[in-house]
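Project standup — Tuesday

K.O.: blocked on the structure for the chain from last sprint. Re-posting the sequence here as requested.
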Amino acid sequence: MYKPLTIEDVNKKLKPVLINPDVSYLSENQLKVIKYLVKVVDIIRDLYFFQKNKHTKELISRFKSENKSELLQLIHIFNDTYNQFDDSYFIENTERCAVSSFYPEDITIEEWNNFLELHPEVKDSFISPYTVIERNKKQELCSISYSEAYKAYLAKAAALLYKASEYVDNFYLKSYLHAQANAFTGNDYNEANIRWIQLTDNNIEPLIGPHELYDDTFLGYKASFTAFICVNNKKEHLKLNELLKMSGIIQSILPVPVHYKKSNSEKSSTMLIVDLIYSSGDGSGPIHTAAFNLPNSQKIRSEFGSKKVFLKNIIQAKFDGVMTEIGALVLSETDKNKVTFAAYFNHILLHEISHSLGIGLIKDDNGAYFDVSYYLKELYSIIEETKSDVMGLFAQFYLVKQCVIIDTNFIESAYTYIVSIIRAIRFGKDNAHGISSVLQWNYLIRDGAIIVNPDLVKITINLHKIEKSIEKFLTAILTIQGEGDYAKARDFINEYSYTDEVLLTILNVVKDTPIDVLPVFKYGNEELNK
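H.V.: unblocked you, prediction finished:
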């Protein structure tokens, strides 16, 4: 459906926030590194446009020649011509196919399954996160490596990474930049992911490459490109270390049998709090990433661990510009003060820790181990985000009661979580976090943990029930993942992903509040910031 859109419309949904962290302590060489990385981020931005919609490049070229700057800005904001907030396209005749650019537009799940049954020798390359599926001259399915399919972008990015590394003194940063450049040209991302995990004790914290699977709504196998340039925020690390020490205990108390959690044997985990300088790709869409926990490969995690990165300036902006406004509208005068930044930040920290907990690998009928995402396919991202949200609150309740977390309490944790759900529901029906939040809202409403006063349109929490409801919810989600049961995942999502009159009333109350923040970068993307 086509619906015109203006920058003024967007600014009502996304609150512009200047992203200008302190870089005064960086050396001259470190600033040169950032200069080259900014150019890489711009290349990743253009590559991601192509991943989302292969026709976007032609549109951008046309709009530049026609001086249609507002349409260019809209494409840069949404990474596409699709406005997820009202399920419409703001440029006529640009609707994309359901399988994005990862697969042939006419592919069906039946064809996919039949082809792999007849050609089991190609399974690994077909389900690889780093290949696109195309048709050969015989119109048969075939896989093409990212390094070949996206060569025009990745060769340039690799050259810039090598150039940036010339100004790097830190061994681990230099190793990561070299490994990432090699991955862009050789399509083996394992080394780059391992080097990124090992990158610590450096002022500059970049992440560049294909990582998350959200955009593959057909099967959930293919990774989208993303890019972040950050600088370390060295004041916020004490809490992280304490929470990481508790992750083993949280894993042990999860409310499921041991065989639903024992195969997740992550070696170690690093947590960093950073400030964002510049970003592009799948993490910088209309709902900007606030934190990430990578790599997604359970095999790498089991041997080398993972790294959890929190974008402090983005998290603060989301709380100040969105959470407080929603809380003031849907909670009573007394309860709105229970929405606190400490509770919000703690839940985000525990959400990312939760991605590493539960089950990681499941054995198939032939004795081979595969990630849970292999079994749950395109539903994995929804189920995984639901798990991490619910487990995050489960862990937060536990750690508050154990006095490990002392800057917030049980009540603040519960109310802040509920407001966060309402915020995320508005992300759109194609957003995994948005769908996940609808599931959480409906489950807790039906279980009596959330109560809505129909006369005042105010939300209260049954504080005697919510902890038990969260535990039951977590058991259901972890069981689905532990069984690797696609049908149960589908049925669960179908059962709880509805919008009834109660939810519509709440959404109507907050309809004029921002949905998220719109980063305005001081560094990078100069063409759009003039």
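K.O.: great, moving the ticket to review. The longest strand covers residues 269-281. The first helix runs from residue 7 to 13.
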